[in-house]
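---------- Forwarded message ----------

FYI, see the Protein kinase domain-containing protein record below. Original note from H. follows.
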Amino acid sequence: MFNPKAYLQLNPAQNMSHHLATGRLLYYCQDQQPAYWLKLQVKGVDVKSETSFEHELGVYQKLQLLHQQKLLMKPSAASVCLTHQLIPSTHILGGPEHLVSHALMLADSQALFVPTELNFATQLHLLIQSLNVLGQLHDEGYVHGDLKTQHFRRQQQQCYLIDFEQCVEIGVQVENTVTATPRYMAPELFHAKKKTIQTDIYALGAIWLQWLNHVRWPSRSYIDWAYWHCQFLSVELDRDFAMLQPILMRMLAKNQSQRYQHIEEIRLDLARVV
């Protein structure tokens, strides 16, 4: 994707998102093919955003190393991550000064869960793809921690995950702060419990439920989302997907003890009903 001996010139005409409060910069670059996204972080603007970005870079490095190790045993092994590179900030021209040490370059990709009419076989295939890539991340030892619809991407018919800023290692206790998206948060997260495989499963269930029903839940306040997930959310699927209702109900069980424990359990139940 990028020749490390060359330099990236940021063009002001490129599609750019600039979050002043956090120092986060996001460029969509079409001046070469394939197109790519460039994610940068300015130092000294927002400590929390800077820490999250540095954490994400570290997760990408660890996942890439794990993938390289897998390739030695299985050359066809798939990666959890989109094609990407970590680029030294010294190779970026025309950007703001005082960037953190590296920028993240991601290949352009398509959304996996697009709001369009698809036949049942195709929809089921996409559900399984999302399930597999999340299961692979768990097998690598990580909980994503902030799953949402747009974090599932497709590139050359493969499914990948993006945005690992809130990713946590399985079994590692971290500070109980709200760092997930309330639209997809499991009930226990509203009670300051730690992120687990089960909180990822709940978020995936919320994504599936909205996509299969062709709806997007309307925006709510944080408190309203807490009531929604902890008390009011009910699982109702269109008749065409009635056979998936028991699976969605267990993925979205409010009581953590009644929810699936692992991705493999969902795979087995899917195999039984379709």
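H. also flagged this: The chain has a mean pLDDT of 89.
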